[in-house]
Amino acid sequence: MTAVIEVEHLRKTYGTTVAVADVSFHVNEGEIFGLLGPNGAGKTTAVECLQGLRRPDSGNLRVLGLDPQTEATTLRRRIGSQLQESALPDRIRVWEALDLFASVTPNSSDWQLLMEQWGLTDKRKASFSSLSGGQRQRLFVALALVNNPEVVFLDEMTTGLDPAARHVAWELVRAIRERGTTVLLVTHFMDEAEQLCDRVAVVDKGEIVALDSPQGLIATHASEIRVIFSTDRTDLSWLEKIPQVHQVERLGPRVEVEGSGPVLALVATALVEHGITPTDLRIEQPTLEDVFLRLTGHGVHD
User: Fold this and answer.
1) CATH no. of 3-219
2) Coil, helix or strand for 273?
3) Side-chain half-sphere of 27: how many Cα atoms within 13 Å?
4) Domain 224-285: assigned CATH number
5) Mean pLDDT of 63-92
6) pTM of the full predicted structure?
């Protein structure tokens, strides 16, 4: 595969604060690559360095074979950028912003189609100042796509969107990739990274602590399955003797069994053998949230 983004030993500090410690990764052509971590982890700083918006202290960066520092003008014609902190003039209308961006962009996309795809048609005449946070986010994503970019940077693109709008945005990102555009997605939403990304770099305190596909990260760092049910039976010590069971926790009638492999089938069989009919029996598969907790010792929102 061809790498369209290459990062080697990126470091960026602000005084005595280390924003990015020593980060290396690459993004392949046509990939949705995620930088996943809490706010303040260094994700946005890394992306701003890749776009030539900030000068790194050290490291070797290439985007589409170009140096973001010395070839920034050429690079910006070929990339799209939706930044976490963006703003437009208060009085500019939605259609005016899209039309303006398209007018200065060679080979621009159909901005009216983008407006429709990102759910802004009803707000076409609305001023920027009157838009909600979610509507502004959608406008910035649409603006990032006006120039038909080869690589698009999306920084916390679904912040402020309701659940339905988030799922629509995910489908549109998949469509962006289907037309051949490479996507670098910055997010602190675990489900978003798990749903969208081909590979994910888990970032914490300016460092990449793991990098793999979402499924690979889960298999390596959080393979345990949780079987949860309720019962009034008091003696469940025999559950701990099941080979695939690693831990049993109880809080009142609620029982949580953590294990691996076919633990659900083994627990269900054992319950029948002991004459127990559990209520609310369900299984919880491990997620990227579990991976992050295992790798960092804290949650993404802590």
Assistant:
1) 3.40.50.300
2) helix
3) 29
4) 3.30.70.980
5) 91
6) 0.84
